[in-house]
Automatic annotation (TrEMBL):
Biased composition (Polar residues): 24-33
Stretches that traverse the bilayer: 148-171
Family annotation (SUPFAM superfamilies): Immunoglobulin
Record's protein name: (Atlantic silverside) hypothetical protein
Keyword Signal included in the entry's annotation: yes
Alphabetically ordered keywords of this record: Membrane, Signal, Transmembrane, Transmembrane helix
Region described as Disordered: 24-45
Annotated signal peptide: 1-26
């Protein structure tokens, strides 16, 4: 039979192997656009994120423009944000709209705090008064397969957890005479029955 130290080391090694196979949040390759990183004259750009990650859409226009309306067309409804005054309609908690003025530009931002597959294909449109051009962007949501790794890890962990519990229970029952007597697992009870039955 193995010593306690060997079993302990084997368990640590197994846990280390499981940890190496699971992805960390730093391994997700998400592409969220920040307002400061916008190129192409402030036009909103397409965003691709993993399920559950936040998505940020931005639209920049010169402050000299009268106003800009940044409209969010999602699966849960359509919402408009009018800048520079920051007027927007009632929006769900997962969606946040804001207006900011910096460096001679008005920046309108829609932030979707947690994405799901139903958000795939969400579209935003940046509209300026008296301008025919209405640039838009689309949200693409993909599955990072982290949920599958988590599910497989939970199943494997549950299996080995059950094995560990039953193994410890077996060892405890083998070594404890008190538990064996309480559960009638030792051979002494049978001898008593024979004595009672064969009484002359």
């Amino acid at each position: 039979m193995r010593g306690k130290g060997e079993v302990y080391r084997a368990c640590l090694l197994f846990l280390a192997v499981l940890q190496i196979g699971s992805p960390s949040s730093g391994q997700d390759s998400t592409n969220t656009t920040k307002p400061e990183d916008l190129g192409d004259g402030g036009r909103p750009s397409d965003v691709t994120v993993a399920v559950g990650e936040p998505a940020v859409f931005s639209c920049r226009v010169p402050t000299a423009s009268q106003n800009v309306t940044f409209t969010f067309y999602g699966s849960h409804g359509n919402y408009s944000l009018t800048c520079p005054h920051g007027h927007f309609e009632d929006v769900p908690q997962a969606l946040y709209g804001s207006c900011d003025e910096r460096n001679g530009e008005t920046v309108a931002v829609w932030t979707l705090k947690g994405t799901s597959f139903s958000d795939n294909g969400t579209r935003v449109v940046c509209q300026q008064r008296n301008k025919l051009d209405e640039p838009s962007a689309v949200l693409h949501v993909y599955d990072s397969e982290a949920s599958y790794y988590t599910l497989v890890g939970c199943v494997i962990g549950g299996f080995f957890g059950i094995l560990l519990v039953f193994g410890l229970l077996f060892i405890t029952l083998q070594r404890s005479k008190t538990l064996q007597r309480a559960l009638c697992l030792d051979g002494d009870g049978e001898d008593d029955m024979d004595t009672i039955i064969t009484k002359e």
